[in-house]
Design a protein that fits this description.
6-stranded mixed beta sheet, Rossmann fold, Jelly Rolls, 13 helices, alpha+beta, 2 domains, about 30% helix, 7-stranded antiparallel beta sheet, 20 strands
Length: about 475
């Protein structure tokens, strides 16, 4: 494993220090505050960078990055045919299942919720790109809730739009840190809690109406007491005769602002929770592991347990969005990467034979030359080419993030903008850059959806009344030893 360059680390630390100095010279009225600075990293060495996320108002999209309005209904497909051909590839209807689910949701036919599960690396860990994509698609198709979240922060910068989570006394094992095959549930992490371990979830939107706890049922398992704004809502008993994945849903009162989980009786093992709304709409799960690569999905996730978790969540679209960390190892990319991606796709398809799968390429990744010029790492275009070829071979959709955002040299251009669209590490987008990528992704998907609607029209039916999907009874899943 290569060591992290000291000069680069110093440069990143300097960049962070400059931003902190700028913070103290700028009025809080302008939207910057110390609480908005968070570290983020995703280097192959696993060491931390100090790139901060600064939440400031988004600037107008640069003319060079102009894209169709993702919220525009009835997009003119013909006018955008070149854009779709360039960046979104959907040979043989690979995304038809997802588009049909959106159609049935929108027209009120048999569909109440459409689910997307997006696997990725550190930008996904911080809900960058995915958070904006969620907001855009939920505004168009309805908000069915925040979706899946972890119950504590494996990394300080773990986040999710509309939700603030904190935990105490949990032992956290992630698929990246362990890099051994195990049961990590849906989200790639397992949380072991002794008696007294606590999770507090603050709901910014105050509109979730249920919480589903996903856990490992096992002999001698303890209980998880759930409260909403301090009021007891129910208890999840994790004890059982054998080890197997299980879940239990508990209703929340309207307007709940804070949910707390507390372990009692005996220790427990928990994978995460799902927050839902009693409404028709879409959920978009952001499942990012810091330092993740395709091998996390192809090697670290136990295939049987992973299949159980995917089947239970039952998404209509699974996004596989890796490649950034692999780009630091060109020999691996050349010799092994394609096979690992095929193996990962196979695991998803075995669990979800009918779901659509979208391979989403990494963004550009920059590196500095001896003359301090910023160029694209040579393995990035190789990874993108392999991903597109594998997507075609395996019947998956493919979104070329790298080309959509500008292709070779993009990070040099993004870093020179004011404010920068990427951090000093030339890997992680700023919130402004992430917003652009989210718009590119969603606009391409919506163009594909509109084209699907032209070829597969559906008769509109009355939207059925809302029926609660929540229950206080555990929904037992298939057994996994």
């Amino acid at each position: 494993m290569p060591t992290f360059p000291k000069q680069t680390l110093l440069a990143i630390a300097t960049f962070a220090a400059i931003l902190l100095a700028v913070h103290y010279g700028i009025s809080n009225a302008k939207g910057m505050g110390l609480s908005t600075l968070r570290p983020i990293t995703d280097f192959p060495s696993g060491r931390a960078s100090l790139f901060p996320i600064v939440k400031i108002p988004l600037p107008p999209t640069p003319a060079a990055l102009a894209i169709p309005d993702p919220m525009a209904h009835g997009l003119k497909a013909a006018a955008n045919s070149t854009l779709e051909t360039q960046f979104l590839f959907d040979g043989n209807g690979a995304l038809d299942h997802f588009y049909a689910a959106l159609r049935d949701l929108k027209t009120g036919q048999s569909r109440r919720i459409v689910r997307i599960v997006h696997y990725g690396d550190s930008p996904t860990t911080a809900d960058l790109i995915t958070g904006d994509a969620r907001d855009i698609l939920q505004e168009r198709f309805g908000n069915a809730g925040p979706g899946f979240i972890l119950i504590a922060k494996p990394w300080a910068w773990y986040g999710h739009h509309g939700v603030d989570v904190s935990g105490t006394d949990w032992k956290i094992d992630t698929a990246v840190n362990s890099m051994r095959e195990a049961n990590y549930g849906l989200g790639g992490a397992i949380f072991t809690g002794p008696v007294g371990a606590t999770t507090t979830i603050r709901l910014t939107a105050h509109d979730s109406t249920s919480i589903e706890v996903q856990y490992l049922e096992e002999p001698g398992g303890g209980s998880i007491d759930v409260t909403a704004d301090g009021r007891p809502m129910g208890t999840v008993n994790t004890a059982g005769d054998t080890k197997k994945d299980a879940s239990a849903s508990i209703q929340l009162p309207p307007g709940t602002r804070q949910v707390q989980l507390r372990v009692s009786g005996n220790p427990v093992q928990v994978f995460g929770v799902v927050l839902s709304r009693d409404a028709r709409g879409l959920t978009y799960d952001s499942i990012g592991l810091n330092g993740a690569s395709t091998t996390v999905m192809s090697r670290a996730f136990n295939p049987q347990a992973f299949s159980v978790a995917l089947e239970h969540r039952n998404p209509d679209l699974v996004v596989i969005n890796y490649g950034t960390n692999e780009s630091g190892f060109p020999s691996y990319v050349e010799k092994q990467y394609g096979g690992e991606l095929i193996r990962a796709i196979g695991r998803v398809r075995a669990a979800l034979p009918d779901a659509s799968i979208l391979i989403m390429s990494p963004m550009d990744r920059g590196e500095r030359t001896s003359g301090d010029a910023i160029t694209t790492m040579r393995a990035i275009p190789e990874i993108v080419a392999i991903q597109q070829r594998v997507a075609e071979q395996t019947g998956c959709g493919f979104f070329n993030t790298y080309q959509a955002m500008g292709g070779p040299g993009t990070m040099a251009n993004w870093y020179d903008r004011h404010p920068p669209l990427v951090g000093a590490d030339l890997i992680h987008p700023s919130p402004q850059g992430a917003h652009i990528v989210a718009q590119l992704l969603t606009s391409q998907l919506l163009i594909g959806y509109e084209r699907y609607m032209q070829n597969h029209p559906a008769h509109t039916k009355p939207v059925p009344p809302v029926i609660s999907e929540t229950s206080t009874q555990p929904a037992k899943l298939l057994g996994v030893q």
